[in-house]
Write a structure and sequence with these properties.
CATH class: Mainly Beta
Number of domains: 1
Largest sheet: 13 strands, antiparallel
Structural class: mainly beta
CATH topology: Porin
Order of helices and strands: HHEEEEEEEEEEEHEE
CATH architecture: Beta Barrel
Length: 348
Amino acid sequence: MQRRRRPGSAASICRLAAFALAFAGPVAPASAQTAGRLDAQSDANDAMNDAMFATPNAATPAPLSNLYATSPDLEKQIPSPQFRANALLPLGWNSNAEEVSRGGTSTGQWRPVGNLSWATPVGDLPLRATVAGFAETDRYFRASNVNLDKTGGSTRLQYVDPGNDQAFSPYFVFAPRWDFTPTFDNQISARQDFNLGFNKRFNLDGDFRQAPIASDSSGAAVWSLGLTAFVQRRLREPQTSSYAAFVIPSMSYSISKNWNASFAVEFIGRWFDRNSFGFFANNYEIQPIATVEYVVPAEWLGGERNAALLGRPALDLQSSYLKVWSNAPGGGFEQWQAVAALKMGWRF
């Protein structure tokens, strides 16, 4: 008589193991994709915001901390503590809101940002300390599933040469950040960035001759060329933490009193820790960003006093292209963005 096969037999165990492997297989890269897309999205938006804040605008006060070496006053020592408040009100279009490899939603977007920054010299040392904080709301008209609210800050310690604002300027940054569902409801992720890098800037006149060495050579510069490079350790919860290297050349052009333009390219290599399924993910990104800015004349606003009260507003037009390559299946994508923004800043 044939014996009945028990549930715990070898054949049953094999079937269960095959089912488990089939289920777990796509999860390993899927978890990597989640972290990779969140990081790619946040790094891209930060780069676009800082590109608008970094324009060579002599009227609108810029934040005291920025990603780009060509940002006004970033490598200059300040004589006394300063406090600044800044805001961006961008309205634009996004070709791929979900950041997927194919079939992403093309949609309008609204991404207001508020920024507070404070900087001070560190005694008589050639050092400058900066503390900054921000809040940002991302809203997509046709892709509400990826709406996101963000808040965070940074602490920056930077070497500056008091007599040469074109000097090599190494720095260290600690930058925590928290992501929420709308409207700052449930926290979905948290991260802490540790960045070690440098800025190097060259200020040029209209004939591309380098400006003489001085504590504030950028004020009279027509062209500025800059390089930012840093390595990063990003601790993320939930997974996955990562290491990254950033290389960001930038250029700015002061066309006239009211018009200026800038261009930058952000290159990022990011290598994620092994996740709970044993998968190592890595992303490589390139993002060129072009910005044109018009500074609203003070006389249009009733004079210098009114213009200062209103934050010396400027109008920015910006375009960006982001390309991401990933070893996680379906993790690579491309995204175009076009933005028009109102920019304001106050100095205290």
